[in-house]
Each structure stands twice: as C-alpha cells, then as structure tokens.
Specification:
Elements lengths: L3 H18 L18 E4 L1 H4 L15 H13 L2 H4 L3 E3 L25 H11 L3 E7 L15 H11 L3 E5 L6 H18 L4 E4 L1 H5 L7 H7 L2 E3 L8 H13 L1 H4 L8 E3 L12 H13 L4 E3 L8 H7 L2 H7 L8 E6 L2 E7 L5 E7 L7 E6 L12 E8 L3 E7 L3 E6 L4 E8 L2
Parallel strand pairs: 1-2, 1-8, 2-3, 3-4, 4-5, 5-6, 6-7
Antiparallel strand pairs: 9-10, 10-11, 11-16, 12-15, 13-14, 13-16
The protein binds 2-acetamido-2-deoxy-beta-D-glucopyranose (3 copies).
Enzyme class: hydrolase
Family: Belongs to the glycosyl hydrolase 27 family.
Subcellular location: Lysosome
Amino acid sequence: MMSQGQRLGYVFEFSVLALVFWGVPGTRALDNGLSITPTMGWLHWERFLCNVNCLQEPDNCISEQLFMQMADLMVSDGWKDAGYQYLCIDDCWMAHTRNSKGKLQADPKRFPGGIERLAHYVHSKGLKLGIYADVGNKTCAGYPGSFGHYDIDAKTFADWGVDLLKFDGCYCDTLTHLVDGYKKMSLALNRTGRSIVFSCEWPLYVRPFHKPNYTEIRQYCNHWRNFDDVSDSWQSVKQILDWSSSNQATIVDIAGPGGWNDPDMLIIGNYGLSWDQQVTQMALWAIMAAPLFMSTDLRHISPQAKALLQNKDVIAINQDPLGKQGYLLRKYHNFEVWERPLSRLAWAVAVRNLQELGGPRSYTISVTSVGRAVACKPACFITQLLPVKKELGLFEWTSTLKTKINPVGTVLFQITNQA
Ligand SMILES: *[C@@H]1O[C@H](CO)[C@@H](O)[C@H](O)[C@H]1NC(C)=O
Ligand SMILES: *[C@@H]1O[C@H](CO)[C@@H](O)[C@H](O)[C@H]1NC(C)=O
Ligand SMILES: *[C@@H]1O[C@H](CO)[C@@H](O)[C@H](O)[C@H]1NC(C)=O
C-alpha cells in the first residue's frame, strides 16, 4: 500500500507533466494524406553509405541490383507484411551531371534501367520507392543539388513513380535559401499531383543558428531530422536518446498523424550494438513514434535481429493510431522510465537500465506512477513485450510491478486499462 504522502507525490508529478505535455495539439500537418502513422521502410545510408565501386564490390555498391535484391527480400522474408513498405535510396544514386534537358539522371552504369524501371519493379512487389536529393547546390556527397531546380526535380521524381523524397540540407549558403528551399520543394511535390512522402532535414540544419519553427516545419514535411546522423555504435544511439529527452518539451507535442520527429535509422542487425542495445533502440523508437527505417543488409541478418525488427507488438506501439509521441517520465538511480499514451486508454512504458557495468538490476514501478496515474485505474492488464513477451496478468491501481533489466537494456511493457 502507498502512504498518503507518496500518493500526493505522484499527483504532483502528474500535474507538472500535464502542463508540459498535455498541450493543445492540432498544429496543421502537411496536407498530403501520407504518414498518418510513422513511415516504415528501408534506407540504404547507414549500412551501404556512398559505395559506388561496383567493379570491386558488386554486391555492396549503390546500384539497381542492390535495391532489387532488397525489394525481393522485403516481400519474401516478411518485412512487407510486418509493415516495412518504403524501399529508399539515399545519396550517390545520381550521375554527376544533369541531362541536356536539365533533369537529374541516375548513374547509367549502376542503374542501367533508370529509376523509372526500378520504381516499376518495386511497385510490382507491392512496395514503394524512396529517393534522395538536396536543397542546396550539391548533395552531401557532391552530386547535383536541387537549388534552382525544385520544380523540374519534383516533376522528374513524380514522372518516375517515386513515392518518398528524402531532402538533405548540404551545400546551402544561407538559412533563407534553406528554409525557402524546403517550402518550395514541398509545394513543388504537391503540384505534381503525386502522393510523395516528404522527409526533411530542415531543423537539423537550422538548429545551429536559431530555434527551428516546428509549427512551420510540420506544415511542409511528413517527418524531419532534428539531430546528427546515426552511426553503427551505441554511443550514437545513446546521444540520440539523450538529445530527444533533453529537448522533449519542444519536440514531443508537435508530432502527430502526418508529421513526425525522425531520430534516424534503425541500426539493428549490423555490427555496433549488443543484443540489449538493439532491444533499447527498438523499444525507444516505438515509444518516440519514430519513422522506422532499417539500414541493414537483409541478405545477411541474424534470426534474432530479424525477429526484433519484425516484432508485431512493438511495431503496433510505434504505429498506434492515436499518434502521440512518448517521452521520458523520470530518471532515477541510473534508470529511465519512458511512457507513451496509446489509443483505447492503453500505455506503453519502457524502463532503461543506464548502468554500463554489473549485471541485471531490479526496478519497481508503482502502477499509479505511470500513465498519468489513470492507466491502471481501477485495474490493468500488463504484458511485457521486450526483451521477451510475457503476460504478467492483472494489476490493481495500488499495486507495483517489479522488473529486472540488463545493463544498457530496456524492458518494454504494454498496459491495457481494465475499466
Ligand atoms: C496538395 O495540397 C492540397 C491542399 O493543401 C491538398 O488538398 C492535396 O491533397 C495535396 N496534393 C497532394 C498530391 O499532396
Ligand atoms: C548556389 O550557387 C550559386 C552560384 O554560386 C549561388 O548564387 C547560390 O546562392 C547558391 N545556392 C545555395 C543554396 O547555396
Ligand atoms: C512559426 O511559423 C508559424 C506558421 O508559419 C507562424 O504563424 C509563427 O509566427 C512562427 N513563429 C515564430 C516564432 O516565428
């Protein structure tokens, strides 16, 4: 039983959060009917970078063959069924010059069939194709930028049958050019009449100079990168999580159907993360309502990483139709408790063990202390989803939930109200 003092403490905590996060939603989203739940797919960058050496590394270079192989596997290995629909090309697909009509063109050696044929192939598999361009004079890797060509590039992508555009912010000389460029490209995509998800890096490039205007960004983009590129390391994933929680008062409320904060790709299935660290990335990307772009080699992925990326229950949390992003609720003795409100009065709760030495540590949660004190009122059903699924049964409002978490690991729960 809780004492009266404890209870007041929880009520106080609840009201502070209510001020910060239960703010008025309803900032207008980009009106293209897309990304009503966070976009899911595969993006080549983190795993394949700008490998253009098809002579020596034919299997790992940025070529139509790579994307066709991934498309095949996305269907045959259950990725599409799990919800991963967008197969996305990042930088380094282009030829170094535009064609005689001023249009972007794919590198003719690496994409002999061109993007249009690749799009047909991808569509024939029931998937969608994403592509990459840049708001400035060059892409980050030095290929032609879209500055001065927003309309023609939008039209080219639409004509090819592209379904998503990742628009980077390198080689852009002024903030005005950057902000205007993102707006112009968004409007140019709209004018093509084709439904194209618009993935922006606008706030990432604005932030060093001034606070991004998220109200505005949400009106033009379906998701937006706020922070550095993810790399294949725990350090990188930790920094992204720290940045997200430190800035949650600014970014959490702005997310919702049609517009999401993008903490960058899932690196699960690669080299840099231990099992517990991979579980942490998956659990927290679900809590944060993040777009789920895997960047891994689907031809060589362990059954364990595959099962984690295809975990239906965790994906369902990420894709919850209420569309509210979760947040860090409290940090205590090297534990972090995160929570996310879900539809039908359900909640997701993640407990991270930040300690990077020793063994598993126990943490006890009063069920009143999560889900704004009402998740479990008068009772709830709790299921542990990660690291393994376990139905934990019925809990009363005054009860506690005891859990054990591995170092750098996370335990993810779903709380279903039994009103
Ligand atoms: C373009 O924008 C208008 C209004 O903002 C919207 O109704 C329409 O669906 C959009 N079209 C596309 C293709 O996104
Ligand atoms: C692109 O280059 C031109 C010519 O140097 C320059 O005038 C323009 O401002 C540049 N645009 C961006 C977005 O950097
Ligand atoms: C942010 O953009 C919105 C929509 O364009 C605008 O109404 C608002 O004044 C801007 N806020 C700031 C601080 O510039």
